[in-house]
């Protein structure tokens, strides 16, 4: 009876280890597939709103928490770009109301009404999550935004 119980305990322990490894593997695949980006070598001169457009900087400060996790920024179903730790991208947009989202294990949104000729800043951060960090998108002031961008790496827009 003892050998049978010992084998049962060993089998149960093996099942838990396999599940744990499978969970880690799934998490690794999820994390590495998020926010794939390329460095952008675009000129700073492009960072002005074009005629009849507004400019939005999406950025993510460099922080220890969530440094290995990236997330994509979307408008509706369209991926605009990825935000890995310590990066930013620039988005030229027509005036009006726009809702942007970021997702990992949850989806967060921010809505902003933009005017032609204006520049806006949206900060992306990660908070604690059950398995992966939870993204936040926050509109920041025109006074704070430029300072926050200092030292960040510019990445390309999706399809850009």
CATH class of the largest domain: Mainly Beta
Mean pLDDT: 78
Gross morphology is elongated
CATH topology call of the largest domain: Immunoglobulin-like
Explain the overall architecture.
- The strands form 2 sheets. The chain has a 5-stranded mixed beta sheet with strand order 8-7-1-4-9.
- Helix content is 23%, strand content 37%.
- The longest helix has 32 residues, at 2-33.
- The protein contains 2 helices and 9 strands, in the order H-E-E-E-E-E-E-E-E-H-E.
- The chain is of the alpha+beta class and 160 residues long.
- It is elongated, with a radius of gyration of 21 Å.
- The protein folds into 2 domains: 1-33; 44-154, Sandwich (Immunoglobulin-like), CATH 2.60.40.
Key attributes of the depicted protein:
alpha+beta, Immunoglobulin-like, 2 domains, 2 helices
In a few lines, what is going on in this structure?
It contains 2 helices and 9 strands. It is α+β, with helices and mostly antiparallel strands and 160 residues long.
Write the layout of secondary structure elements.
Layout: H1 2-33, E1 54-60, E2 71-75, E3 78-83, E4 87-93, E5 96-103, E6 107-114, E7 119-127, E8 134-140, H2 145-149, E9 153-154
Parallel strand pairs: 1-7, 4-9
Antiparallel strand pairs: 1-4, 2-3, 2-5, 5-6, 7-8
């Amino acid at each position: 009876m003892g050998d049978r119980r010992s084998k049962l305990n060993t089998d149960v322990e093996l099942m838990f280890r396999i599940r744990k490894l499978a969970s880690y593997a799934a998490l690794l695949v999820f994390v590495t597939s998020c926010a794939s980006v390329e460095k952008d070598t675009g000129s700073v001169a492009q960072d002005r709103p074009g005629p009849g457009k507004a400019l939005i900087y999406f950025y993510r400060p460099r922080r220890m928490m969530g440094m290995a996790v990236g997330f994509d920024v979307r408008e509706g179903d369209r991926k605009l770009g990825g935000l890995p730790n310590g990066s930013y991208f620039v988005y030229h947009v027509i005036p009006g109301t726009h809702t942007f989202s970021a997702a990992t294990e949850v989806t967060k949104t921010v809505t902003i009404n933009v005017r032609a000729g204006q520049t806006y800043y949206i900060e992306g951060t990660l908070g604690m999550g059950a398995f992966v960090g939870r993204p936040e998108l926050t509109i920041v002031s025109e006074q704070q935004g430029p300072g926050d961008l200092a030292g960040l790496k510019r990445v390309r827009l999706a399809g850009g």
